[in-house]
């Protein structure tokens, strides 16, 4: 293969980036590199035996397993070349229907290769009557266009609910500081469990494992699971995140603001926390490494679980009443209504950037918090309860029914000391 050297160069950059991890995907990638250099396109059964240690004759399960891993490898390649490797002149890809690698051009196009389009001929010989008719039609069209533009301009200049929220407390200081904004989604990392050491048979949520690097550390401390647990490139978001995005994104993009960059909390670059505005959206259990910052010098602390907050001033415990997964609320004793809680805070970052946290104990609380942070009236009420302090925290009690938030009320509001959060006192 004539392009062996460029292929090896790209392969080494992919390995060094860490995007392939230290999993079977890396073994599969190395195998395909060697096969491609030999100008071979191995069958799925050969890959199943050579790379994954299957026995000969396992049948359709071999091809299914190989297809899954090849699909995941394609996703990792796409992630690398759309991120860290976006400026590479060449990229490695896996063509559909084949188990081999190809090297193809990548990066921004050089020059303008579009062919010039010849101008359309100008019509001649219009009769005076035709010319008058055309002029009248064009004048009418221009009038309609001016009217349509006037209507659109009137609608554009009238403030929308998102515009009103953006100009209110909480959001106005963040949007006015000129910093880029990160919208951080509280996600959950899933681990593949191959009980037989070969095939992933179930997905596992380990609460201390929130990224590939966490998985490597976890396995180094739990070597008995090293042959079972593997990165499968899967995670999930709470269902309420979609509803809250619908409330918050228009506010962050109001009046010509540059839309925020949406990132998963598990993939957040810690360096950006120092310079960019940070808006966290998710459950309390999804805060991950942000938890220490959010609850430093706070009036509240987490209780025994993420479904409990303790007020250090009143010593009162606030516990979510959301039913366990799968429980039928109607069969439980007591009224059908139940309580959940939302936690909202905003404070100054270490370099003049701003933080806003929109969190719930469960989905009901998160949805209520999102609705309040997208409403100017609710924002004004929060600010009034905080004595118009720009840095504050609030606990919101949410009355819910059948997984839906009905109403919310503020049960505790306190100022935040940003200097104490960042150890500047």
Q: What's this model, at a glance?
A:
With 425 residues, the chain is an alpha+beta fold. 36% of the residues lie in helices and 21% in strands. It has 3 domains: 4-105; 188-235, no CATH class; 240-421, no CATH class.
Outline the structure in words.
- This protein has about 425 residues and is α+β, with helices and mostly antiparallel strands.
- It folds into 3 domains: about 100 residues; about 50 residues, no CATH class; about 180 residues, no CATH class.
- It is built from 14 helices and 15 strands.
- The protein has a 7-stranded mixed β-sheet with strand order 7-3-8-13-12-14-15. Strands 5-4-6 form a 3-stranded antiparallel β-sheet, with helices on one face.
- A hairpin with a 5-residue loop joins β12 and β13.
- α2 packs across α4.
- The protein is globular and about 70 Å long.
- The N and C termini lie far apart (about 65 Å).
- About 5% of the residues have low confidence.
How would you summarize the topology of this molecule?
Layout: H1 4-17, H2 24-37, H3 44-50, H4 60-81, E1 90-93, E2 102-105, H5 128-157, H6 161-166, H7 171-175, E3 181-185, E4 188-193, E5 202-204, H8 212-221, E6 229-236, H9 240-252, E7 261-264, H10 272-275, E8 277-283, H11 290-294, E9 300-302, E10 308-311, E11 317-319, E12 338-348, E13 354-360, H12 363-373, H13 376-385, E14 392-401, E15 404-415, H14 418-421
Parallel strand pairs: 3-7, 3-8, 8-13
Antiparallel strand pairs: 1-2, 4-5, 4-6, 9-10, 10-11, 12-13, 12-14, 14-15
Helix pairs in contact: 1-2, 2-4, 3-4, 9-12
């Amino acid at each position: 293969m004539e392009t062996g050297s460029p292929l090896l160069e790209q392969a080494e950059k992919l390995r060094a980036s860490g995007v392939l991890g230290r999993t079977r995907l890396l073994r599969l990638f190395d195998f395909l590199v060697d096969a491609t250099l030999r100008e071979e396109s191995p069958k799925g059964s050969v890959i199943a035996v050579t790379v994954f240690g299957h026995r000969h004759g396992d049948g359709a399960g071999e091809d299914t397993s190989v297809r899954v891993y090849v699909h995941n490898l394609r996703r990792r390649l796409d992630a690398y070349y759309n991120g860290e490797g976006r400026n590479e002149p060449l990229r490695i890809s896996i063509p559909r229907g084949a188990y081999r690698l190809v090297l193809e051009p990548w990066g921004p196009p050089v020059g303008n290769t579009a062919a010039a389009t010849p101008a359309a001929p100008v019509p001649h010989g219009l009769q005076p009557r035709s010319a008058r008719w055309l002029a009248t039609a064009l004048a009418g069209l221009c009038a309609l266009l001016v009217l349509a533009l006037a209507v659109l301009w009137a609608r554009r200049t009238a403030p929308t609910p998102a515009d009103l929220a953006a100009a209110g407390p909480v959001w106005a200081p963040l949007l006015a500081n000129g910093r880029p904004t990160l919208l951080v989604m509280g996600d959950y990392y899933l681990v593949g469990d191959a009980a037989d050491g070969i095939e992933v048979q179930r997905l596992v949520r380990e609460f201390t494992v929130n990224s590939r690097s966490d998985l490597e550390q976890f396995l180094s401390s739990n070597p008995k699971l090293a042959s079972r647990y593997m990165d499968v490139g899967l995670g999930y978001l709470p269902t309420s995140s979609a509803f809250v995005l619908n409330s918050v994104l228009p506010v962050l993009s109001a009046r010509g603001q540059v839309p925020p960059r949406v990132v998963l909390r598990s993939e957040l670059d810690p360096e950006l926390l120092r310079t960019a505005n940070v808006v966290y959206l998710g459950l309390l259990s999804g805060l991950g490494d942000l938890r220490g910052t959010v609850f430093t010098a706070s009036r509240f602390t987490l209780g025994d679980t993420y479904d409990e907050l303790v007020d250090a001033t009143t010593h009162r415990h606030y516990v979510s009443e959301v039913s366990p997964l799968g429980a039928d609320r109607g069969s439980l004793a007591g009224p059908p209504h139940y309580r959940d809680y939302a936690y909202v805070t905003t404070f100054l970052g270490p370099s003049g950037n701003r933080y806003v946290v929109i969190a719930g104990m469960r989905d009901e609380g998160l949805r209520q918090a999102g609705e309040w942070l997208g409403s100017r009236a609710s924002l004004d009420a929060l600010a009034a309860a905080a004595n118009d302090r720009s840095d504050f925290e609030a606990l919101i009690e949410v009355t819910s029914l059948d997984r839906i938030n009905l109403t919310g009320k503020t049960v505790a509001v306190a100022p935040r000391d940003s200097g104490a959060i960042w150890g500047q006192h």
